[in-house]
Structure formats: structure tokens, C-alpha cells
Design goal:
The complex is a heterodimer of chains A (474) and B (341). Chain A is of the alpha+beta class and 474 residues long. Chain A is 51% helix and 20% strand. Chain A has helices at residues 25-73, 88-96, 169-216, 235-283, 287-321, 330-347, 367-384, 418-421, 440-450; strands at 75-78, 81-84, 102-108, 111-115, 131-137, 140-153, 156-167, 326-329, 351-355, 362-365, 390-398, 401-407, 454-459, 465-472. Chain A has a 5-stranded antiparallel sheet. Chain A has a 5-stranded mixed sheet with strand order 9-11-12-14-13. In chain A, strands 1-2 form a two-stranded antiparallel ribbon. Chain B is of the alpha/beta class. Chain B is built from 13 helices and 14 strands. In chain B, β3 (34-40), α1 and β4 (61-67) form a beta-alpha-beta unit. Chain B is globular, with a radius of gyration of 20 Å. Classes of the chains: A alpha+beta (474), B alpha/beta (341). The interface between A and B is medium-sized, with 26 and 20 residues.
């Protein structure tokens, strides 16, 4: 027995054809979500900005109107003249909001009386309530309020007009401050939208990824239909995929059936030919003819074996597609197989040394497939052993696995590795004189793979090869 | 080595300037390459130490320092468009009017961070010194009795001793003096004692002055016992020099005049004007300001001022003072109080 590291167990997956990618659904989705978020953020900003402007103007107008009224209240008729009591606090209050510049003008009987006499007058004559208007003055745009007061002087009604204006810095400052908060809000909204869009795109595209993963994780022979639950939008795609799988399965199945039938049809006449040739050999005395007949028998044997293995291979492939697992005792199966090889081994005086645990070794798998695999391993070991040698068959339990180890004293792997040897119809470079089809190792590997087990070949100390076929325990 | 080339020239008629100039001071730094021109109401004696300190820090500059009255300053900027890089004035109302009417350039001196909100109006007018408006009495007149500590006490004192103080009390004539008018209107706005005091002063034939200087001089030379509403920088300077004067900060309220500076739109080098402004507001400038007698640093915390201190509000409320109708009405009242039958 040897414990040399096994050769790589599985052949590499066939390369997937290149797919031409145009754009990305996820990117498109994220971009569109972000565009929507940007539009919403912008709309939010504009809406807040507009209402902030209106609110600030309303607040300023209220203060301005009150100040204008207060200014107008300071006009009094006094002894056939007018007196104007300007309260400084009126101006102080106006300026307090945003340290605005303040301008005023008082007209009496249509004539400017005091203040900034060039201040723009109101567009229409106001009444007792303030009239608000906006006008340019000294490089600034002013918000102005105007009121009139009527008074009796020497028995005549005289109208006084009071105009009070201020720059709109305070209003602008308030609106700007609100607007900058709104801008911050908009930017914050947008920044928040970035991870949310990514999450949304991931959530939406998640099922696609799951289906992809489920399909790509499948073994090379797993042609079952995809039965994952998917969103409605993915239904047609999965339907099409399943239809395709079904057609592929049908085609494969037809091919394997054809091969099996072909092998069967070849095997039957071949055995007839062999029987006839053996009878002819026994009857013939001439040495030249006998040699020719032996060569015929040998070729027929080779062909028959190939056909048998083709049949077996087709069986394995067929069963792989519909894994039919059941629990059985690997010990019993192996013992029966070893038993069945005793006649062949005895012919070449090869001793089969079998050892297994006393207890049953329960494994879960397709019994027929595993039987085919074991048969091929034993056949190989006996076939490549020299006469009077010993083949050791050991069944052990290790780490929850049942390991079947078959060691011979044959000619070894001849420098090839398992990956090469397990390709269909590929044989070692040092076995030309022995009948073989090159399908045996392929069958073993495919069975191991389909059963969740592994298979490895390693050189044995002192010459020969060890085959390790391992299956998971029940 | 600091080498200053200072030239003091009192020129009353400068061909380039139409407004009336009181003093003209030119000071050069160590290696001057540019000149900053300042128009100010502060006399050159008070300003000189500050300007020297400024030139020590900026040896590449010269200072052209022109002293004029507050009204002349107004006339120079508004009517004549005279090119000055900085306008310094104690007439707060006129400074606010200049700024309100658009003659000031916005400034953001980095040293203005510690400035209290009441010491500047917008980014246009910056206060850099506080001066209490005080009562100065001659110690001789109050030998043996305590001087009045409030306006009410002053009124009682004058009423009780009409003959003692007849023609011995002086104050600004608000009709002539801009500062006098400002103090009188602020007095009238803050307390109800002002008109009573005016009537008492009128009854005692109070003497009216155009300027602080003359009032203090008369006080020092014994022609006056009480000077009401005097700017403390002058009063304190005189009191320190001549121990015969006592400065009283009225305990009911003491007005604080804010000396302000602004960079006018007529400036040729607004950057240099801003440099001087920044220096005035700096720790160095404020320290030297406080050393100049009687001026409070404007950056000092309000708690360090006496509790009775009332800084005059530096905002467009001052515009109401300048309204011609209001002014005429106020001066009419004042005249009525002064001239009594």
C-alpha cells in the first residue's frame, strides 16, 4: 500500500464559448434610478427655493408695512403746518432683519417734504393700507411700501404720502440660507439614492444571478430542467432554457442509444466470428493458418471488449442523467466483484488479496454505475499485472468516505497522468501489447463524479499502480 | 531702526481740495512705495501714535492724514468725490448715512472676528474705538462737596444753586455741532431727564460751544464749572494733564460714542484703506487705542464696560436724526428750552 499524493482527480471543464456583452442591465438600471433621483432632488430644491423666496418676501413685507404705517402715524397736523415725528426705532427695526439699507420719502400735498426725494413713487396712489412694489434705486433693487394719510389743515384736506424702502439683502440672506439647506437636502437625497439604487438593482437582478449560478454549478452531465422559482419576467427565459435542455437531452440520449445499439449489434456477430475462429483454430494443423487465426481471435476479442465498454459507457452516461440513488452495502458489492474476477486471475496465476471491514459499508449511489466502475478498476489491475503477481484490494473507511484501493504490480502509468488517461479512447503509451479500448478510466471517472466521489491513480512503491476510488459514506 | 520722516503741515487752503481742511499730516514708513490717504475727524496729536505703529508694521507705506470736521468729511466724499482710502469719523450718523447712501465699499477685515455686533453696521461701517460721553467738572467748584453722579442729581444741584452756577455750565450747541446734536438726540431718546436738564440749563444761561476743545479750555481756565456731554478722549487727556478737572461718567446712563471707519467708493487704493482698518481692529491697534487716554477698546467684552454704558446704536436708526424736519423740530424744542422769559 502506498500513500503517495493522488494525481489530479477531475478533468477541466470544457471552455465556455465567449459571449458578446452589450451594456449592462445593472448599470442601465442604476443610471436610470439615479437620473430619476437627480430630477426629484432638483425639483425639491426648486420648490423649496421658490417657497423660501415667497416666505421671505412675505415676512419682509410685513415688517416693511408695519414700519411704513408707524412712519405715517408720526405725521401730524399742527397749527396750519405739519409735524413729522420720525422714530429712529422704525429704521433700526427695518435694518435689523438683514442689516438692510433704508430709504424713505415723505410727500405732502404732492410735494416732496423730506427724505430721499428721488425715491421711486408707487405706481398708483395707495390708500391707508400699504402698497408694496419693487423698483431700482441707486444700483439696488428696493422693496418699497407706500401709504397715504389724509389730514385737515386750515379746513382743507391734504394728503401725505409716505414711502419706505429697503434693500432686499435680509430677504436674500434668508432665502439663500433656506436654499442652501434645500441644496444640501437635494444633494443628500441624491447621495442617499446612490447606494439605494445599487441595492435596488442588486435586488432586481438577484434572481438572474441565482439562476446563472444554479445552472453553471451543474455537473457536465446534469441536464435536468431548471426548476428554480423565478420572477414572472424571467419565466420565458427559463422556459426557453428548459426547452433547449430537453432538446439537448433528447439528442444526447439518441446518440448514446445509437452507440449502445451499434455496440450491441457489433458484439453479437463478433462472438459468432470468435467461436467460428476458435473452432477453425482447433481443426487447423497448419502453423501459418493457426497464427493467422490467433491474430483474428485477438482482434475480435479487442473489438468485442471495445464494444462492451462502449455499451457500458453509454449506460453510465445514461444513468448519470437520471441519478437513481439507493443505499447499498459497498463491501458486499466489492466482494462479489472480486469473486467474479477470480477465474480470470487464476488463468494468469494472479492472486487477489481482498480485505474489508467486517461491518457493512453503506453508501448512497447508483448501484449499477458503481458496479461498472469497480469492474473496470479490477479489470485494469489484473490486465496490466504480470503473471504470478499479486493484486491487493482494500476497502477502508476514512473521514466519512469509503475508500476502495486497488494496487497492482503492473507497468505503472508510463509517464501519463490521469487527466490524459481518462480521455475517451486514450490509452497509456506503454500498453500497446494488451487488449484495451481506452474507455475504462473514463467510465470510472464519470461514475466517481456523478456519485459525488473521487478517483485517483498513483504510482506504487516498488513498481505498479494504486487506484483509489472513494465514495461518500451514507 | 525705525526712521520716520514726519511732516506736519497746517494748510487751510489746499488747491486740490475744495472742502475745509483743519490739519494735514504726512508720515513716511522706512521705505515707502505707496501712500494711503486718510480723511479723519480725529486730530493729528491723537492719531499720531497709532499711525506710527501702523507704519512700523508697514514700512513700505506712507500715510497722508487729512483732518476735517465731520460735515466737511461728508461734503468731501458726497459732493466732491474726493479720493481717500479710508474715512474715519466720530459722527456716527453721518458715517451710517454715507454707507446707507452707497458711498462705502464692503470690507471683511480678518481682524473683525472679535468685533461685537453693535460695533459695526453690515460690512460697511466698522467701529474701532469707544469714547464715553461724560460730564467734566472743575475740582475747585466742588471742593468740599461730592460732585453729582447722575443727571437727576445734576438737575437738583443746579436748581438748588442757581446763582452759583449761572453761566458756569457749558455744553455743545446742537444747532452748530454735529456731535452735540447727536448726543442731545440720544440723550432725549434714552431718558426723560434731558428736557428738564435743558430747561434748567436754559434758565441758568448755559454757555453753548461748537467744540469740545474750547469747552475744556474754558473749564481749565476757570470760566466754567461744569461741561455737560463732552467726549472723554479730550476730557480725560485734559484731566490727566491738569489735575484740576474731574471726569464724571453719569451713573444713570453713559453714552458711548463709537468712532468708525469706512472705505469710501472714491478710494484709489481700497486695499490700503482696508489694511489700515484691519490694523485698527487688530490686537495691536486696539491696545494702542486703549493706551490713548479715554478710549475704550471696541473689542473688549461688554462686561468690562461699566454697567451704565450705552453704546449709541450704529444702524439706520441714526438716519432719523438727520431728517431735516425732525432736526428742525428738535432744535425748535431745544431753542424753546434754552431761551426762557
Amino acid at each position: 500500500m502506498t500513500d503517495q499524493p493522488p494525481s489530479p482527480a477531475l478533468p477541466p471543464r470544457p471552455r465556455v464559448a465567449r459571449v458578446v456583452l452589450t451594456g449592462s442591465l445593472r448599470r442601465t438600471l442604476v443610471l436610470q434610478l439615479l437620473v430619476v433621483a437627480a430630477v426629484v432632488a432638483l425639483a425639491l430644491f426648486i420648490a423649496i427655493r421658490i417657497s423660501a423666496d415667497k416666505a421671505a418676501e412675505a415676512a419682509q413685507d410685513a415688517v416693511l408695512g408695519a414700519a411704513t404705517q408707524s412712519l405715517a402715524d408720526g405725521i401730524r397736523a399742527e397749527d396750519s403746518a405739519v409735524d413729522l415725528d420720525l422714530a429712529p426705532i422704525t429704521f433700526s427695526m427695518l435694518s435689523a432683519m438683514g442689516e438692510d439699507r433704508v430709504f424713505y420719502r415723505v410727500d405732502f400735498a404732492g410735494q416732496p417734504m423730506t427724505g430721499y426725494v428721488d425715491l421711486p413713487p408707487p405706481p398708483a396712489t395707495p390708500g391707508g393700507a400699504p402698497q408694496f412694489y419693487t423698483a431700482p434705486y441707486r444700483d439696488h433693487v428696493l422693496r418699497l411700501a407706500a401709504v397715504t394719510r389724509r389730514m385737515l389743515i386750515d379746513g382743507k384736506t391734504v394728503t401725505a404720502l409716505v414711502v419706505l424702502g429697503q434693500t432686499r439683502l435680509g430677504q436674500k440672506a434668508i432665502a439663500d440660507s433656506i436654499a442652501s439647506r434645500a441644496a444640501l437636502l437635494g444633494v443628500g437625497f441624491f447621495i442617499l439614492a446612490v447606494p439605494l439604487s445599487l441595492l435596488a438593482a442588486r435586488a432586481i437582478l438577484g434572481p438572474v444571478g441565482r439562476v446563472t449560478e444554479a445552472v453553471s454549478r451543474r455537473g457536465p452531465h446534469d441536464l435536468r430542467p431548471v426548476n428554480q422559482s423565478v420572477p414572472r419576467e424571467l419565466g420565458p427565459l427559463i422556459g426557453a432554457l428548459n426547452g433547449f435542455i430537453l432538446r439537448l437531452r433528447g439528442a444526447l440520449s439518441r446518440t448514446e442509444t445509437f452507440i449502445a445499439e451499434a455496440a450491441h449489434h457489433i458484439r453479437t456477430p463478433l462472438s459468432t466470428v470468435r467461436t467460428e475462429a476458435e473452432i477453425a483454430l482447433r481443426q487447423s494443423q497448419e502453423e501459418g493458418t493457426r497464427a493467422r487465426l490467433r491474430s483474428v481471435i485477438r482482434s475480435v476479442e479487442e473489438s468485442s471488449r471495445s464494444a462492451g465498454q462502449l455499451l457500458e459507457h453509454a449506460l453510465v452516461l445514461y444513468r448519470t442523467d437520471r441519478v437513481d440513488r439507493a443505499e447499498f452495502d459497498l463491501g458486499a458489492l466489492l466482494a462479489a466483484q472480486v469473486q467474479s474476477f477470480h477465474p480470470t486471475a487464476d488463468l494468469r496465476e494472479i492472486a487477489l488479496v481482498y480485505s474489508a471491514p467486517q461491518t457493512p459499508v453503506p453508501v448512497l449511489g447508483d448501484r449499477l454505475m458503481i458496479e461498472a466502475a469497480l469492474r473496470n478498476i479490477l479489470d485494469n489491475a489484473i490486465k496490466y499485472s504480470p503473471g504470478e503477481a499479486q493484486v491487493e484490494i482494500t476497502l477502508t473507511l476514512r473521514d466519512g468516505r469509503a475508500e476502495t484501493r486497488v494496487c497492482d504490480r503492473g507497468r505503472g502509468l508510463g509517464g501519463s497522468d490521469l487527466v490524459e488517461l481518462s480521455q475517451r479512447f486514450r490509452r497509456g503509451g506503454n500498453v500497446a501489447d494488451i487488449v484495451g479500448s481506452g474507455l475504462g478510466l473514463t467510465i470510472v471517472l464519470e461514475v466517481a463524479e456523478a456519485s459525488g466521489g473521487s478517483f485517483a491513480l498513483s504510482p506504487r512503491d516498488g513498481g505498479g499502480t494504486c487506484a483509489l476510488f472513494s465514495l461518500p459514506l451514507r | 531702526m525705525r526712521a520716520f520722516l514726519a511732516a506736519l503741515a497746517v494748510s487751510l487752503a489746499s488747491p486740490a481740495l475744495g472742502f475745509e481742511i483743519e490739519e494735514h499730516l504726512r508720515m513716511d514708513g522706512a521705505a515707502p512705495v505707496a501712500t494711503v490717504s486718510i480723511l479723519s475727524t480725529t486730530d493729528s496729536v491723537t492719531a499720531r501714535p497709532l499711525l506710527e505703529a501702523f507704519l512700523a508694521k508697514n514700512p513700505d507705506l506712507s500715510v497722508d492724514y487729512v483732518v476735517a470736521s465731520a460735515l466737511s468729511v461728508q461734503q468731501a466724499i458726497v459732493d466732491e468725490g474726493a479720493a481717500f482710502d479710508l474715512v474715519i469719523s466720530s459722527a456716527m450718523d453721518l458715517q451710517v448715512q454715507l454707507a446707507n447712501d452707497g458711498y462705502a465699499l464692503p470690507q471683511m477685515p480678518e481682524t473683525a472676528g472679535s468685533l461685537p455686533h453693535w460695533a459695526h453696521w453690515r460690512d460697511l461701517v466698522y467701529g474701532f474705538a469707544l469714547e464715553p460721553v461724560v460730564i467734566v467738572v472743575s475740582a475747585r467748584a466742588f471742593a468740599g462737596r461730592p460732585p453729582p453722579r447722575t443727571r437727576r442729581a445734576l438737575i437738583d444741584l443746579l436748581r438748588d444753586n442757581p446763582e452759583r452756577f449761572r453761566q458756569r455750565i457749558g455744553t455743545y450747541d446742537p444747532a452748530i455741532s454735529g456731535a452735540g446734536y447727536l448726543f442731545a438726540t440720544q440723550d432725549a431718546g434714552l431718558g426723560n431727564t434731558f428736557w428738564r436738564l435743558a430747561e434748567v440749563m436754559g434758565r441758568l444761561d448755559a454757555r453753548l460751544y461748537c467744540c469740545s476743545g474750547e469747552m475744556i479750555r474754558d473749564l481749565a481756565e476757570g470760566r466754567l464749572d461744569i461741561a455737560y456731554n463732552v467726549v472723554a478722549s479730550y476730557a480725560l487727556a485734559q484731566a490727566n494733564r491738569d489735575r484740576g478737572l474731574t471726569v464724571l461718567e453719569p451713573e444713570d446712563f453713559t453714552l458711548l460714542l463709537i468712532r468708525t471707519a469706512l472705505v469710501p467708493t472714491t478710494a484709489r487704493r481700497p486695499d490700503l484703506g482696508a489694511k489700515v482698518l484691519s490694523f485698527l481692529l487688530s490686537v495691536d491697534g486696539q491696545t494702542r487705542m486703549a493706551q490713548a487716554s479715554g478710549m475704550y477698546s471696541v473689542t473688549a467684552p461688554l462686561a468690562s464696560l461699566p454697567p451704565s454704558a450705552r453704546p449709541i446704536r450704529l444702524d439706520p436708526g441714526l438716519l432719523a436724526n438727520l431728517d431735516k424736519i425732525r432736526r428742525a423740530a428738535f432744535l425748535g424744542e431745544w431753542q424753546a428750552a434754552m431761551t426762557q422769559p
